[in-house]
UniProtKB/TrEMBL annotation:
Entry GO CC: cytoplasm
Gene Ontology MF: a single term: cysteine synthase activity
Protein name as catalogued: O-acetylhomoserine (Thiol)-lyase
Family: Belongs to the trans-sulfuration enzymes family.
Keyword terms, alphabetized: Lyase, Pyridoxal phosphate, Transferase
Residues of the signal peptide: none
Coiled coil: none
InterPro entries xref list: Cys/Met-Metab_PyrdxlP-dep_enz (IPR000277), Cys_met_metab_PP (IPR054542), OAc-hSer/O-AcSer_sulfhydrylase (IPR006235), PyrdxlP-dep_Trfase (IPR015424), PyrdxlP-dep_Trfase_major (IPR015421), PyrdxlP-dep_Trfase_small (IPR015422)
Highest taxon, organism lineage: Bacteria
Gene3D superfamilies: Aspartate Aminotransferase, domain 1, Type I PLP-dependent aspartate aminotransferase-like (Major domain)
Cofactor(s) needed by this chain: pyridoxal 5'-phosphate
């Protein structure tokens, strides 16, 4: 599939049936797999042979969909996880351990912020947050001897900052560590971070990839470009023997393109079990088949709503990288030439109270803790997804209390604008 364009990969990637096989990917709804001898199965347990033995670790349906996502991102290998949260946790914890340090953009999804700042901190992993707009020097200054990775979001949820991936990758690589990019909002249709130097890409497939609000899921993709063995001392988990697999060393046995996902599956999925179900993977794949068609419409609707809101006198600020004059317009032109996504953030003149009143008046656009599906929805992050953050942290994350995050779905843009217009008239 690698010679085909991304639109073709969306439809046919990851699975090529042979003579007489099902045209659509089969749902292998089986926890376990049968073997003729214990010896055959033993080889799987020892990672001496590839194959399936228990669906907590790997399942054929999930692997077909992961293979499609790897092709879409231009990666060497990928795995599905139960959620975007577990995808980000796995990607980071596959590299870091207790006593290590990470650097993350401060402009990230609230759930990821809690994961890093609270839960992973309890596990002994400290994080320094940097502005997504920091200079190379400021980013370099955040490094410590025990820094093991840098993390950011292509388009941050919900602040909609656009990350200068090339710059972050350069500084990370100068310090001998990988860059992890959460590419949930643009999807590989609109940006492929690996082409800009990212080493690992993550997704909440719950968003545009599924795209219908049907299945929670995540994915981790390895570019295969990071040379773990060249920085052996930093990455003992990948570069020294794993006692839980008879002393096998991932980076040696599976090479640059195989080590990361194999370790993530064999250790983290084995021990933590954050797996996606085959049924959900099937639903995700249905979404992927139309991802390229849907993203274009999400962008068209996002752009139209952003332009309408930007010209409205009750709105003080609109954030959308497709808007000329937006702080991230230039970075958007570079990384997102076909547009970013359908999510638009804006601030109402009256702040939090007016935001609540406005949202109540919407008829077509629903209030939901969700973004990025076919049906338009909106949310006030300060009172929902980001309510654990202090006012100071909200400010750092670029989320004022009166911010409304609007996710433009696939409806007719004229109907969306009419709905926004009538709700604005009520305040
Ligand atoms: C939603 C989201 C997540 C978390 O994903 P879940 O599937 O809800 O666990 C992570 N990163 C970003 C950018 C998100 O939008």
């Amino acid at each position: 599939m690698s010679n085909y364009k991304i639109n073709t990969k969306c439809v046919q990637g990851g699975y090529t049936p042979t003579n007489g096989e099902p045209r659509q990917i089969p749902i292998i709804q089986s926890t376990t797999f049968k073997y003729d001898t214990s010896e055959d199965m033993g080889k799987l347990f020892d990672l001496e042979a590839a194959g399936y033995f228990y669906s907590r670790l790997q399942n054929p349906t999930c692997d077909m969909v992961a293979a499609k996502i790897a092709e879409l991102e231009g990666g060497a290998a990928a795995m599905l996880t139960a959620s975007g949260q577990s995808a980000n946790f796995f990607a980071m914890f596959n590299i870091c351990e207790s006593g290590d340090h990470m650097i993350a953009s401060s402009s990230i999804y609230g759930g990821t912020f809690n994961l890093i700042a609270v839960t992973m901190k309890k596990m002994g992993i400290e994080t320094t947050f940097v502005s997504p707009d920091c200079t190379e020097e400021e980013l370099a200054a955040a490094f410590k001897d025990n820094t093991k990775l840098v993390f950011g979001e292509t388009i941050a949820n919900p602040a909609l900052t656009v990350l200068d991936i090339e710059k972050f990758a350069k500084v990370a690589h100068e310090h001998g560590v990988p860059l992890i990019i959460d590419n949930t909002f643009p999807t590989p249709v609109n940006c492929r971070p690996i082409e800009w130097g990212a080493d690992i890409v993550t997704h909440s497939t719950t968003k545009y990839m599924d795209g219908h609000g049907s299945a929670v899921g995540g994915a981790v993709i390895d570019s295969g470009n990071f040379d773990w063995m060249a920085h052996k001392e930093k990455f003992p988990g990948l570069c020294t023997p794993d006692e839980s697999y008879h002393g096998l060393t991932y980076a040696e046995k599976f090479g640059q393109g195989g080590a990361f996902i194999t370790k993530c599956t064999a250790q983290l999925m084995r021990d933590l079990g954050c797996k996606q179900s085959p049924n959900d993977a099937f639903i995700l794949n249905l979404g992927l088949e139309s991802l390229h068609v849907r993203m274009a419409r999400h962008v068209e609707n996002g752009q139209a709503c952003a332009e309408f809101l930007n010209s409205h006198d009750k709105i003080t600020k609109v954030s959308y990288s497709g808007l000329k004059g937006d702080k991230y317009y230039e970075l958007g032109q570079k990384y997102l030439p076909n547009g970013g996504c359908g999510v638009v953030s804006f601030e109402l003149k009256g702040g939090r109270a007016e935001a609540e009143k406005f949202m109540k008046a919407l008829k077509l656009i629903a209030i939901e803790t969700h973004v990025a599906d076919a049906r338009s929805c909106c949310l006030n992050p300060a009172t929902s997804t980001h309510r654990q953050l202090t006012d100071e942290q909200l400010k750092d994350a670029g989320i004022p209390a009166g911010l409304v995050r609007l996710s433009c779905g696939l409806e007719d843009k004229e109907d969306l604008i009419k709905d926004l217009e009538q709700a604005l008239a009520t305040i």
